[in-house]
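pls ignore typos typing on phone
calcium ion + seq
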Amino acid sequence: MSEIRGVILAAGQGTRMRSRLPKVLHPLMGKPMIYYVIEAVAQATSTPPVLVLGHDAEKVYQHIQDMEVEVVVQQPQLGTAHALQQTAPVLAHTDKVLVVMGDMPLLRATTLQKVSALLPPAPSGALAMLTVRGGEAKGFGRVLRDAQGRVQAVIEEAQATPEILAIDEYNVGVYAFEGRWLWSALERISVSPKGEYYLTDVIALAVADGLDVHALQLDEPSEAIGINTRVHLAEAERVLRHRVNQAWMLAGVTLIDPGSTYISPEAYIGMDTVIWPNTYILGKSSIGEGCELGPNTYVRDCQIGAACRVFNSVLEGARLENHVDIGPFAHLRKGAHLAEGVHMGNFGEVKNAYLGPGTKMGHFSYIGDATIGAQVNIGAGTITCNFDGEKKNHTHIQDGAFIGSDTMLVAPVTVGEAARTGAGAVVTKDVPPRTLAVGVPARNIRTIKD
Ligand code: UD1
Ligand code: CA
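k done
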């Protein structure tokens, strides 16, 4: 039986990030970088990865406890070889061990699979590894080859002579090991002058054992971006954003300026939607077909139907049905639900409220904790006074009502079907259907005839 398990090393402190947050929790496109690594390794091996935690293990654990991983703790942190050694009790009988560094979030599952496929079955294989050529060194170990091009060793920057430093093939930190050989080799690694046990020393050990080291060179160097500093974090973010944007453009979405468009890896966008510059589609947002979003629009965790237009606005946790038209300068907050054909103009805020089909709120309004029917006209400056200092109260406005400009609706209150309020009315009592209410406080002055 050929069993493979993945190991992710994530116990290090990440000193170079200069942060109180553990390195592997730093977010990339809104998700901790370690999530990307866990997902790629799980996909490549089809088994839950083993995650080595150490520095701030508790904090990291809180973020990954819902994921399918097996956690092993490395205490103290004495280097990458020592970290891997901690997994021996869990993986002693595993045929093949795929090892990935926790700070390499751009590696694709397909690449990891290729490295693992490169390791021939025991006893001839000891290890396969991933390298990358060219570009900046970024502190990576150098890959030493002999005249025949066979890999001989990996030398860490701190130990390298100027000649070795000039080598432009780097160790990515992805390895597939033959299980039994690995555990015996790790025991033979001696401590480096820096006081750490380097996993990279296993390469020279394999060569000394007369075993071949198989190396795969990355086609796409950007996959090898490792996060040691916040400069690398920004680089990774840019690459990831490019990947996501590219995929949506190929799926039929127009991005006017991909460089200033931020789409979360969890978002969905329908065909023929056009996204203008400086627009953010974050979290688990879903956008229908044929919409136009932006410029300067922020959408987080929203469900947006087809053919909607959102212009210069901020939408958080909102739901829009089809043909909704919003902005500029609208703010939809959690629980805002705008039905088909709703129009919301400038300087409006909607929170925890339903606006029925065809309802219009053109200017300067606050609608919170409200249920509003179909074809309602909400005049400029209308406010639902939903908070009495202690609790939130609900406002109901029924179909076809007409709310005059600057109406204050002091909740709890109901405005009946086809009722009207006069400009500046302060409505403190229910307005019956087809009734006109005016004044402060508002009085019902007459019934409206068709
Ligand atoms: C390591 C490699 C280097 C490679 C580079 C690429 C070693 C000695 N060097 O260097 O050849 O080019 O990765 O990514 O392996 N970790 C632990 N326990 C420890 C120390 C580190 O779990 O005691 C974890 C870290 O959390 C990190 C990973 O191992 O996720 C790599 O550690 P890091 O210090 O970033 O190593 P590099 O200097 O990048
Ligand atoms: Ca690193």
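The mean pLDDT is 96. The first strand starts at residue 4 and ends at 10. more later
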